[in-house]
Design goal:
Elements (H helix, E strand, L loop, with lengths): L1 H5 L1 H11 L1 H26 L11 H27 L1
Length: about 80
């Protein structure tokens, strides 16, 4: 699996600190945060015609889904931590 090769160092670091499941979720959170930053930058250039100062609707939907995914991952990390 390519992601395990590309993120080997990060995975090793976080898995050692937090255990395998939480470590992998932490790396996933970082990846989602990076994606959010890129989408946010794109949203600056793709402004809505209807709502000036706001990104186009597809950018808004992508950001909401990424934010929701992050929230779900964070809740799983907290649940795993509570079980240990």
């Amino acid at each position: 699996m390519p992601v395990f090769n590309e993120k080997h160092e990060e995975l090793e670091h976080f898995e050692t600190m937090m255990g395998v499941p939480r470590g992998r979720l932490a790396v996933t959170m970082d990846m989602i945060t990076d994606a959010m930053a890129l989408v946010g930058q794109h949203g600056v250039y793709c402004q809505s015609q209807r709502w000036p100062g706001r990104p186009v609707m597809d950018i808004q939907i992508i950001m909401k889904n990424l934010t929701d995914a992050k929230e779900l991952i964070q809740s799983v990390m907290e649940e795993l931590k509570a079980r240990n």
